[in-house]
Amino acid sequence: FHSKTKGDLRNEESVLEWLLDDDNRELEDEIEDVNARMLDKLVDESPFLVAFFYEDDCQECEEVLEKLENIDDDLDRYGIDFVKVNDPQAASKWRVHHVPALGYFRKKVPVFYDRDLLQEDKILAWLTSDDVFKLKDEIEEVNRKMLEKILSENDFVSVYFCE
């Protein structure tokens, strides 16, 4: 950390920011594991964030996680961050009473998936659907992949391009 970023290891915020940086956090072919504090920071900073809540010694959690690994790259292409959380403090804060649970945070507000967590194709369709993607009274910022999906599914779309 110190030699690469010229950061101060004594500065807690500096270390946390370095840990949350996409380039340092992301693992190839694996959903990143975060704690409650890191999740809070990501919820504050990411407009599209999916969090998988799980516990150790949970057979169903392991099965679901294997399925979710299959859509991690797809979500990256849509500009959706995906993390996993095994932290009772985070579960309590976001009112997750049973695991496994999948929450989609849109502008700091979670929407929880209430269907079969073993069908990753349906989960991907839900996460990129108009139902959960759109926010009321707000223009959505999207990447190219999400824009292509929106254009293919709608007859009329207004797009504002900006830098």
What fraction strand? 5-15%
Helical proportion, percent range: 40-55%
- Major beta sheet, strand line-up: 1-3-2-4-5
Report the mean per-residue pLDDT as an integer: 83
Distance between the termini: 31 Å
Structural class: alpha/beta
What does this molecule look like?
The structure is a single chain. The protein is an alpha/beta fold. It contains ten helices and five strands. It has helices at 2-5, 12-20, 22-25, 36-45, 59-69, 72-77, 88-93, 120-127, 130-133, 144-153, and strands at residues 32-34, 48-53, 81-85, 101-106, 109-112. Strand 4 (101-106) and strand 5 form a beta hairpin. It is globular, with a radius of gyration of 17 Å.
What can be said about this structure in brief?
The chain has ten helices and five strands; from the N terminus they run αααβαβααβαββααα. It has helices at 2-5, 12-20, 22-25, 36-45, 59-69, 72-77, 88-93, 120-127, 130-133, 144-153; strands at residues 32-34, 48-53, 81-85, 101-106, 109-112. Strands 1-3-2-4-5 form a five-stranded mixed β-sheet.
Secondary structure layout:
Blueprint: H1 2-5, H2 12-20, H3 22-25, E1 32-34, H4 36-45, E2 48-53, H5 59-69, H6 72-77, E3 81-85, H7 88-93, E4 101-106, E5 109-112, H8 120-127, H9 130-133, H10 144-153
Parallel strand pairs: 1-3, 2-3
Antiparallel strand pairs: 2-4, 4-5
